[in-house]
Amino acid sequence: MRVVLVGPCGAGKSTIAAELAARGVEAIAVGQEHSIIRDLWRRPAADLVVFLDASLETVRERRGADWPAWLYEEEQRRLSEARAHADLVLDTGRLTVGEVVERILRALEKAGQHGT
């Protein structure tokens, strides 16, 4: 099964993709936040679309205290369609990497049971 990960810079897409890959799950981190193509996140066919959310404060902790609010807001605008269509939305500022991965694995298992 394939997981597509979307979210703002600093939300943990690369980290979560690597953790899922280590467990044998194909995971693609889509840079939707950098693209004006509104449906870029749809391009790799996915069994599960996961929106990894992170507050501006969390992004600043991970990317630097000077991460601009205007850029974060622009990323959120670009991500709005992906968020609206995501199968799962997880706040990576409130969950550990392990908790995020576990929730994704549970969602994949549930999706597989329902044939999606």
Describe the structure.
The protein has 116 residues and is an alpha/beta fold. It has a single domain, classed as Rossmann fold (3-Layer(aba) Sandwich), CATH 3.40.50. It has 4 helices and 4 strands, in the order βαββααβα. The protein has helices spanning 13-22, 56-63, 69-85, 97-113; strands at 2-6, 26-29, 48-53, 88-91. The chain has a 4-stranded parallel beta sheet, sandwiched between helices. The model has no long low-confidence stretch (mean pLDDT 88).
pLDDT averaged over residues: 88
Q: Quickly name the level 1 CATH class.
A: Alpha Beta
Series of H and E elements: EHEEHHEH
Number of helical segments with 4 or more residues? 4
Largest sheet: spatial strand order: 2-1-3-4
Helix vs. strand class: alpha/beta
Going by CATH, the homologous superfamily would be P-loop containing nucleotide triphosphate hydrolases
Q: Enumerate the spans where pLDDT stays under 50 for 5 or more consecutive residues.
A: none
How many strands, what sense, and barrel or not for the largest sheet? 4 strands, parallel
Q: Can you tell me the number of structural domains?
A: 1
* First and last CA, distance: 10 Å
Radius of gyration: 14 Å
Q: Based on CA inertia axes, which overall geometry fits?
A: globular
Taken as a percent bin, the fraction of beta residues is: 15-25%
* CATH architecture group name: 3-Layer(aba) Sandwich
**Share in helix:** 40-55%
Tally of DSSP β-strands:
4
CATH topology: Rossmann fold
Q: Summary?
A:
By secondary structure, the protein is α/β, with parallel strands linked by helices. The protein has helices at residues 13-22, 56-63, 69-85, 97-113; strands at residues 2-6, 26-29, 48-53, 88-91.
